[in-house]
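question for whoever is on the cluster today: can someone run the full assembly for these? two chains, 898 residues total. i dont have access anymore since they changed the login thing
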Amino acid sequence: MSRLFPKLALPLLARELTERAASKRTYIVRAIFALLLMTAFWFFASKIFNRYGGGATSVLGSGQWLFELLVIIQLMGIFLFLPAMMAGQFTIEKERDSLGLLFLTRLGPWQILFEKYLSGLIPIFSLLLLAMPLGAIAYAFGGVTQTILCHGIYFLFLTSLQVGALALMCSTWCRTTASAFIATCVIGTILYCLPAFIDSLLGPLIGHTLSAAFRDRTIGICPFLIAVYKWHNVSISVLLQQSALAWISTVLFLVLARCFLVRRAFVKGTNPVLVCFRWLDGRMQRLNRVTGNIRIGKSGGQLPDAHPIAWRETRKNVLARPHYLLRILLAVEVPTICYGFVLLLNWPAWPQQSRIRFLWFFITADNLNADLTFLNTLLGALAVLVVSVAAANAFVSERVQQTLDVLLTTPMSAAQIVAEKARAMRPFLAVVAAPVMTLFLMQWNVKIFTGYLQLSHSGAWLYLICSLLTLAVYLPLVSWLSLWIGLKMRTRFRAIITALMVILIWCVAPLLVPFFVSDAWGWVSYLSPLYLPVINEFRGIQWLAGSFAWLTIGLNFSVFGAILYFIRRRCLSCADRYLRQA
Amino acid sequence: MEPLIQIENLRHIYKTHAALSGVSFTVHRQSIHGFVGPNGAGKTTTLKILSTLLQPQSGSVSVFGQDIVRNRKQVRRKIGFMPDHFSMYRQMTVFEYVDFFGAAYGLVQAERDKVIADVLALTDMDGRKNDLISGLSRGMQQRVSLARVLVHDPDLLLLDEPASGLDPRARIELMEILEELRRLGKTIFISSHILSELATLCDHVTILDRGKVKYTGSMSGLISNEQSEVATYTLILAAEHPEAASAIAQLPGMTRISPPLPTSPRYTLNFERGKLPVNTILQTALGNGAQIVGFHEEFKHLNQAFMDLTEPGVRP
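^ ran it for u. tokens below:
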């Protein structure tokens, strides 16, 4: 083929696929994907069967439900796996300085781009094919029409193209795989959540939500939302119209990727937050002349005799310098307070918001303060994400910069180095926790004055204490756990992905056990750090534990506090071994 | 001379590959000891063990008479390690970087201020002390790295490829700094691939290949032909003198005399060291009326010694 049609040789694609085939990780990812897919399918299918009454004949015709469910699970799989698989397409070449060599070959930038794009998409398509047997099961139950089948395939295909193009664009822009992955997650979240947020904000501000037509169009940016809302009774042509935004965004991402590919091929790693803050520094200094050079705190400060690493981390690290932290705090806290007050002031007018229902598949509680909870969950998840990334990166960055060796030849012990790194994280944890705490306090206020869920006065106090303990125990827990994982890893990308996956599995897996096995295994849910805060948020601890509510809170946080202590101790006692591993 | 580093039967294995297989050698106090070997010979592993970054799997390593495993902390205070890569915090200034490591070595503020001024002056970086490291050239960064190594006044410097990637000027300047450090009484253990510079700088050398020591001892012992039975000398005359050359060629023990170069009357003589004293050669030349301008033994170049001792082929 390559001899007859030299243009179709696709050497880069062949190399990428050969490399992937030779890597153990490809097969591990495939096995994990298959396992997650089948487990989730079994779990949800059993729930649907139970709803239909459990009889063999009663489930006939439920194939449509199963098929739609399968597509939604696969869409989630695409969101979970594709950014990680695609984000490194160009950054890995940049990290090993081989991208320039590609430009020297006869391959043009568009060809390089498309071969890389295909080499990222083919593995995800092969993962999607793993669902074929499950699709056949769904089809066997009946009810899956040709239209539904086509729609399902269309959603999967379009989502893969869109998410892949976004991750590829981030890969051409960023210098490292970790930053490309984070950029993909952040831009993707903003892109998908922006319509819902605008809708949510407009309600209290102008008195009505977005028009249905506009909402339909904005939802079109996310094939996942179309799959959730617009599955049925829509012809292919209408579906194409509704998903036009998704197609446009995909093409736009690819065009931008082509623009960035050459321009940003040899850029040095720059921290966009640092660039932004330095620009702000310049502006502030100019403004400061007017006010007579008032300075709050010192920017540098003299190096103390003790704790030099903590000093370096807090004075030289972008996310730890006091005045930069203050800016981050203000940037998050002020909008949070404003948004919270807008919601609070309009509270009685906004009881039940359907616009955010799509995020709550598993929760059926009457949710009077859904907006605050939604924002709190979003900020909480963001806090866990940034803390985990920062902590996992703490030692990997020393390895990547090759500074760890010289640090380890000083008389400081490895445990001391780890302890100082962790100590430097504290101000950052406080800043990240502040907006979440603000929202907790607002919700506590709402609960006291609205009698939400018929909470007694002590119930409101239970809510507050449980919320504060959640922050006080879980954020350091996330920090130390990620630090522990980062100590063992050699690359940023692996450290960050592993830390996030471990946290995700720890939070979700214990919650699923009672559903899979039996209700007698309900106690396993307590092993998830998420269980008590979720109950606290939606039902109140008294609903769960009655008069033992205080005891339940005490036990829960004592256990997780003990786990935190164990991880911390493990990090410190094994620091020498972890840091010295070749 | 008093030994400063003593390595006995050191072995280290990475999974299935033996990086060091019974390495033994000694480094003497106040010497510059070169450490050479092909890529993959085990140099960096040895340096990492000496700098306490790796624990030896078997064998013994002592520095200043102290075992590096049992007295790790004491050893670290006395050594300065410069790895084969720049270990720089690029967002710090030169002063902050050196100051940071001073504090990490436990120096108090007053001590640090004095020492930092000295080491920056020694490395000629005092004029750039407020510059960000990210803005420095490679040669400058290497100087900062050397200043960092010296900040706690170590007696032993372990330098892994300090001159790699530097331009000729930066390399020559670095070698001058190392000479100065020797004069200040430091012991320097230096790994390098630039053999010509090691030959002039080092007084002792260890050659490592495939995890085994091929030579350890004085540099002069390596590059001279003292152990060889056949000596090689160069005789330089004022003008070409065939009679003298012929007479020398007939001396008992003379194995070969090369014809003079077309541009200068320089003869290379090969003779059996035990049978023919050098005085006889000189007397014969003078007796035949030749005017001697120079007469000296030819040393092997370190490159040649290195090639003779190491084996060809790709290392694992």
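summary bc i know u wont read the tokens: Residues 280 and 310 of chain A are 25 Å apart (CA to CA). Confidence is low (pLDDT under 50) at residues 349-368 of chain A.
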